[in-house]
């Protein structure tokens, strides 16, 4: 059982999760959690005992010098923190973790127990995957919700993926089976630029998270970093004719796709969000 430090009562808390590893292409999902931790001054409250879930020969502990003299071991694990976003009437439980190497069902049960004791009313799981999407187009974000109606209401592109899954998919299913409303959001990272970071994918996740939770997200300098990242990939593609041709074929394929139903509503939501952030920046 996860042991918490002394806690204040939380206001209708939502849990947002991301896990390093298979679920975290270019570290876009965990970077989103880290962005929220820093911007919202999240307070660490607990961590999972890693002994039962991690293979330390796969995910090795690290050693660091303290004051240049003593050494401290940092064990790979999953950590919980809480934050109170400005202009929001609810608190957020942030989970930035590492995909476990074993006992996934027990791991999920422990997280669900922690969520219950914290009074969590819904969960949003963030992930990122490699795809054949072009870097020069908006990052596709697919997802799933408790039901298809909720997915449509949230403007999610319904995922039709079938195959191996990671801890994000397993925990999302565990939440649903436990009767805890849960949403998963997956950003598609271009596979030809898979090295972290990918600020454009991180930004896409935060923008969709803002819609799902109706909580203003702290984008910080992510919009500028996303533009710089895209320009950098443009330059790399220009230096290799084969890559440039491949990117053009992906762009053509993307542009030829039919406009999805409900795109007008999605554009309107995006414009409203832009105006809100602009007003906040001028205040």
TrEMBL record:
Lineage: Bacteria, Bacillati, Actinomycetota, Actinomycetes, Acidothermales
Protein name listed in UniProt: PAC2 family protein
Superkingdom, natural source: Bacteria
Transmembrane intervals: none
Pfam families: PAC2 (PF09754)
